[in-house]
């Protein structure tokens, strides 16, 4: 047996992987590379903050953008507990939606990105600048549930994706307020001071998006934007059945790029910078890497979009003395407990039979309301105007 | 007739000048300061100088060691010199801004009667039981007994012995430099039992510059006030396995003693669950932990330790002795392979009773790793007794407390310094009074913890360091600190110009006119002369 001939001391994980090689795993060489690569990145968990800052039906494409990024990020491994999704969420159940409970990201309704299992953390009017900044800096009131918090630590890589309408130096939140690039830069600085991130990838798909990352000054931030200052980001394709544009161009091509990524792929950031050239996007995407310490060609896409957790093999045990008496008696107790339990059933919650067979209630009589009174007063006045006031005497 | 008219206009002009001057004076001397004061953000005073002083804090960690000499352990003339105290300092070479010095305060004394009797017994266990009865040692302190060279308490080739409580035994020597040699050995033993560079490096791993990442340094859970431990049993195929595990008994019997030994470190709560139809996909190892965290529990600071039952031949040959792996700062997973012979006998579902002893051995080992209790590095020729039945020796707990205290102090200092830096950089953050009081208490707690560490009181130092961390985190993460008052310059102009310009223009113009006239009147006398 393999167990007997191993020395009882801690093996380095790399040595553990080498043992896998000797047993005859085919992909062992790749695993070793992966391990080396993985150890170089320095993060142990991944988070994503996806924000759609628009509401109303004609901004369908922003919601579809965010939801598509959400789907990719989930597919590549980040769990819902590590994603903070902020959406106005008024598309799927909008009265103008010809296909209710769906949000499509592709023409001909190929892909429903809303689905059954979307978890929106901040919806509708909760998507405000204040809440967004509170999520980033962690200054959340203590009553906030866990799913609405960004519980990152100094070994987290965070992906922040924002989309909506923007201008030179600001981003519009729900048509009522704005966040400026300086506030965003200050929020990132507060995150850095408290070591709430290891590395941060900031992607923004709005008009003049590059202005939002101009003012960053904290280390380890890489930023991508869909257009330069003075340019507009354009939408991709309208759908004649739904009646609105379904996605923005930059996000559409980024998603096409992400479709080819799987959790084990080795594609790096330089490829992401090439996505959506001017010929396809009409605007010029920009990126900023001067604050980032590693070379972008060494940064894997999965460092931010995927979630790979490091594991080590446990080689030591503590020796414990088994207490046989306790196990025996508990075994008997288990059996007894099972036999005594009665079958479970649901409690009676609603008297359904009564509700179904109810007779309609007699409505109480109410005196006529203002409208009826006003209407009759008008009719009577018109009558007496026409036929003369002398007829009034006969009434009163 | 013209003169009174001229005099009247003169008077009016003078009055007008005076009025304009008074307006200007009120506007500048009263109005400007008032506006400035009322539009500034409220900042309660903070001890900035003390916070910057914390960075230059020199941490001195004192380990009080009592060295007890039995008869015939060292030459007589050395024995005459007893009792006395010697302090040995060692600087810990870490690339950290806080300098850390380790002080071993050795108090030498002669052995008392009952100690002599205990150390002349036959075996080490008996000796230890007798010694343990007499005294209870404070956290952080050590006692080293020096026995004679030819004593049979230790095996012949071993020079020292480290016990599970805070005691150790070292062989004496009949030599001129006996005290120095023995002292050196005592230091070696004491270091193994208390503070080494590795222990402190692991504690400060987040604050040190990263030249190389050792997996040891990133494995332990961060220091926290409490921990929630969840034991989960995943049964992917309940149709074929009917799994039972006596988790209550196992927790009571094996885990609870371990956690009570660790109770100084934090509050623990333990719960358990059984998950049916939860799958472990047969992919490469690094990806297995993430689908599990997506199903139910969110890792964060709840380590989940699930054992697993499945009947497939999934990787059973690839795993090593323990069939288990763990993920840093999260938890561990153990794969429990059901014995294949069970299937031949009965029909499905097969009743499986999980062997809790085997499982708990692995889990306690993983818990030790997750808490950062490393395998001790023994000095050469040293006999180590192994941990007690709880799985933890008392001095390992002390090591943990030291590491945690240092980590807490480092975190609290960083938080306070970052807060001070942020307040300097971003001018719109409001500091309310309660936040300021938290900062003051955090600073006081850091200083108290440093003092206690320097005097060797480990328990109170640890509590003070926990207070420091809690206060500083509360101050930093107070929701009122969120600044939303940033206005770009053009917006500020847009607000103030319509308010101030209509008032300022007449005042400024009249001031200019007054100034020009005064200059003209100064020049006039020259011309006449």
UniProtKB/TrEMBL annotation, chain A:
<feature type="active site" description="Nucleophile">
    <location>
        <position position="207"/>
    </location>
</feature>
<feature type="transmembrane region" description="Helical">
    <location>
        <begin position="365"/>
        <end position="384"/>
    </location>
</feature>
<feature type="active site">
    <location>
        <position position="165"/>
    </location>
</feature>
<dbReference type="GO" id="GO:0042765">
    <property type="term" value="C:GPI-anchor transamidase complex"/>
</dbReference>
<dbReference type="GO" id="GO:0016255">
    <property type="term" value="P:attachment of GPI anchor to protein"/>
</dbReference>
<feature type="signal peptide">
    <location>
        <begin position="1"/>
        <end position="28"/>
    </location>
</feature>
<dbReference type="Pfam" id="PF01650">
    <property type="entry name" value="Peptidase_C13"/>
</dbReference>
<dbReference type="GO" id="GO:0006508">
    <property type="term" value="P:proteolysis"/>
</dbReference>
<comment type="subunit">
    <text>Heteropentamer. Part of the GPI-anchor transamidase complex, consisting of PIGK, PIGT, PIGS, PIGU and GAA1. Interacts with GPAA1. Interacts with PIGT; this interaction, via a disulfide link, stabilizes the expression of GAA1 and PIGK and links them to PIGS.</text>
</comment>
<keyword id="KW-0472">Membrane</keyword>
<comment type="pathway">
    <text>Glycolipid biosynthesis; glycosylphosphatidylinositol-anchor biosynthesis.</text>
</comment>
<keyword id="KW-0337">GPI-anchor biosynthesis</keyword>
<keyword id="KW-1133">Transmembrane helix</keyword>
<comment type="similarity">
    <text>Belongs to the peptidase C13 family.</text>
</comment>
<keyword id="KW-0812">Transmembrane</keyword>
<protein>
    <recommendedName>
        <fullName>GPI-anchor transamidase</fullName>
    </recommendedName>
</protein>
<dbReference type="GO" id="GO:0006506">
    <property type="term" value="P:GPI anchor biosynthetic process"/>
</dbReference>
<dbReference type="GO" id="GO:0003923">
    <property type="term" value="F:GPI-anchor transamidase activity"/>
</dbReference>
<dbReference type="InterPro" id="IPR001096">
    <property type="entry name" value="Peptidase_C13"/>
</dbReference>
<keyword id="KW-0732">Signal</keyword>
<dbReference type="InterPro" id="IPR028361">
    <property type="entry name" value="GPI_transamidase"/>
</dbReference>
TrEMBL record, chain B:
<keyword id="KW-0337">GPI-anchor biosynthesis</keyword>
<dbReference type="GO" id="GO:0006506">
    <property type="term" value="P:GPI anchor biosynthetic process"/>
</dbReference>
<dbReference type="InterPro" id="IPR019540">
    <property type="entry name" value="PtdIno-glycan_biosynth_class_S"/>
</dbReference>
<feature type="transmembrane region" description="Helical">
    <location>
        <begin position="493"/>
        <end position="516"/>
    </location>
</feature>
<comment type="pathway">
    <text>Glycolipid biosynthesis; glycosylphosphatidylinositol-anchor biosynthesis.</text>
</comment>
<feature type="transmembrane region" description="Helical">
    <location>
        <begin position="19"/>
        <end position="36"/>
    </location>
</feature>
<protein>
    <submittedName>
        <fullName>Phosphatidylinositol glycan anchor biosynthesis class S</fullName>
    </submittedName>
</protein>
<keyword id="KW-1133">Transmembrane helix</keyword>
<dbReference type="GO" id="GO:0042765">
    <property type="term" value="C:GPI-anchor transamidase complex"/>
</dbReference>
<keyword id="KW-0812">Transmembrane</keyword>
<keyword id="KW-0325">Glycoprotein</keyword>
<keyword id="KW-0256">Endoplasmic reticulum</keyword>
<dbReference type="GO" id="GO:0016255">
    <property type="term" value="P:attachment of GPI anchor to protein"/>
</dbReference>
<keyword id="KW-0472">Membrane</keyword>
<dbReference type="Pfam" id="PF10510">
    <property type="entry name" value="PIG-S"/>
</dbReference>
<comment type="similarity">
    <text>Belongs to the PIGS family.</text>
</comment>
């Amino acid at each position: 047996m393999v167990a007997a001939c191993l020395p009882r001391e801690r093996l380095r994980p790399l040595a553990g992987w080498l043992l896998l090689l000797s047993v005859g795993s085919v992909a062992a060489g790749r695993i070793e590379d992966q391990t080396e690569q993985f150890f170089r990145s320095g993060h142990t968990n991944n988070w994503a903050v996806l924000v759609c800052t628009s509401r109303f039906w004609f901004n369908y494409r922003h919601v579809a953008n965010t939801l598509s990024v959400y789907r990719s990020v989930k597919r590549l491994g980040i769990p819902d507990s590590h994603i903070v999704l902020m959406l106005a969420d008024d598309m799927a159940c909008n009265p103008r939606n010809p296909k209710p409970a769906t949000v499509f990201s592709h023409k001909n309704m190929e892909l429903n990105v809303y689905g059954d299992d979307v978890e929106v953390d901040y919806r509708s009017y909760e998507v405000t600048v204040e809440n967004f900044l509170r999520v980033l800096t962690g200054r959340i009131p203590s009553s906030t549930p866990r799913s609405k918090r960004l519980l990152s630590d100094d070994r987290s890589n965070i992906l922040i994706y924002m989309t909506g309408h923007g201008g030179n130096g600001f981003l519009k939140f729900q048509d009522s307020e704005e966040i400026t690039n300086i506030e965003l830069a200050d929020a990132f600085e507060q995150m850095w001071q408290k070591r709430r991130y290891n590395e941060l990838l900031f992607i923004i798909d709005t008009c003049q998006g590059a202005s939002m990352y101009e003012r960053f000054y904290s280390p380890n931030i890489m930023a991508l934007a869909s257009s330069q200052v003075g340019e507009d980001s354009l939408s991709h394709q309208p759908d004649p059945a739904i009646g609105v544009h379904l996605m923005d161009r930059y996000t559409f091509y980024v998603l096409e790029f992400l479709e080819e990524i799987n959790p084990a792929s080795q594609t790096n950031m330089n490829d992401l910078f090439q996505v959506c050239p001017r010929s396809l996007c009409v605007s010029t995407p920009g990126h900023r890497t001067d604050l980032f310490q590693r070379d972008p060609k060494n940064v894997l896409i999965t460092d931010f979009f995927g979630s790979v957790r490091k594991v080590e093999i446990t080689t030591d045990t503590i020796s414990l003395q088994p207490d046989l008496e306790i196990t025996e008696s508990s075994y008997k107790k288990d059996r007894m407990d099972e036999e005594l339990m009665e079958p479970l059933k649901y409690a009676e919650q609603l008297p359904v039979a009564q509700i179904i067979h109810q007779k309609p209630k007699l409505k109480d009589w109410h005196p006529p309301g203002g409208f009826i009174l006003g209407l009759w007063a008008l009719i009577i006045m018109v009558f007496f105007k026409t036929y003369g006031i002398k007829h009034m005497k006969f009434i009163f | 007739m013209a003169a009174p008219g001229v005099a009247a206009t003169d008077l009016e002009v003078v009055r007008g000048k005076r009025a304009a001057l008074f307006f200007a004076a009120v506007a500048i001397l009263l109005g400007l300061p008032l506006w400035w004061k009322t539009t500034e953000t409220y900042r309660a005073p903070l001890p900035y100088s003390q916070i910057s002083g914390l960075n230059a804090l020199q941490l001195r960690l004192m380990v009080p060691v009592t060295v007890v000499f039995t008869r015939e352990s060292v030459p007589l003339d050395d024995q005459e010199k007893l009792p006395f105290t010697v302090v040995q300092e060692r600087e810990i070479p870490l690339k950290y801004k806080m300098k850390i010095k380790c002080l071993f305060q050795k108090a030498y004394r002669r052995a008392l009667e009952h100690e002599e009797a205990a150390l002349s017994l036959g075996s080490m266990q008996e000796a230890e039981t007798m010694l343990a009865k007499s005294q209870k040692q404070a956290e952080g302190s050590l006692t080293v007994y020096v026995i004679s060279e030819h004593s049979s308490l230790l095996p012949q080739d071993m020079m020292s012995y480290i016990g599970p409580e805070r005691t150790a035994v070292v062989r004496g020597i009949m030599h001129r430099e006996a005290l120095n040699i023995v002292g050196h050995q005592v230091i070696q033993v004491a270091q193994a039992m208390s503070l080494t560079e590795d222990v402190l490096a692991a504690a400060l791993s987040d604050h040190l510059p990263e030249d190389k990442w050792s997996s040891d340094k990133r494995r332990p859970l961060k220091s926290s006030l409490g921990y929630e431990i969840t034991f989960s049993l995943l049964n992917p195929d309940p149709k074929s396995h009917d799994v039972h595990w006596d988790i209550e008994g196992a927790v009571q019997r094996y885990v609870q003693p371990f956690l009570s030994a660790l109770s100084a470190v934090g509050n623990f709560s333990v719960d358990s669950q059984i998950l049916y139809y939860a799958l472990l996909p047969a992919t490469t190892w690094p990806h297995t932990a993430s689908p599990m965290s997506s199903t139910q529990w969110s890792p964060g600071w709840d380590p989940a330790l699930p054992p697993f039952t499945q009947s497939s031949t999934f990787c059973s040959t690839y795993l090593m002795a323990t069939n288990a792996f763990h993920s840093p700062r999260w938890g561990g997973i153990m794969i429990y392979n059901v014995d294949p012979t069970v299937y031949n006998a009965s029909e499905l579902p097969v009743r499986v009773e999980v062997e809790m002893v085997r499982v708990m051995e692995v889990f306690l080992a993983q818990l030790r790793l997750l808490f950062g209790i490393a395998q001790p590095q023994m000095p050469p020729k040293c006999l180590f007794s192994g941990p007690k039945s709880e799985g933890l020796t008392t001095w390992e707990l002390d090591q943990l407390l030291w590491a945690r205290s240092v980590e807490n102090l480092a975190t609290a200092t960083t938080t306070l310094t970052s807060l001070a830096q942020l307040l300097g950089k971003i001018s719109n953050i409001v500091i309310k009074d309660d936040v300021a009081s938290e900062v003051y208490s955090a600073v006081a707690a850091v200083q108290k913890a440093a003092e206690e560490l320097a005097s060797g009181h480990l328990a109170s130092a640890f509590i003070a360091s926990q207070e420091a961390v809690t206060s500083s985190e509360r101050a930093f993460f107070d929701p009122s600190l969120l600044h939303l008052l940033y206005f770009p310059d053009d917006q500020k102009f847009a607000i103030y110009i319509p308010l101030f310009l209509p008032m300022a223009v007449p005042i400024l113009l009249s001031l200019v006119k007054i100034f020009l006239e005064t200059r003209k009147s100064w020049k006039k006398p020259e011309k006449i002369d």
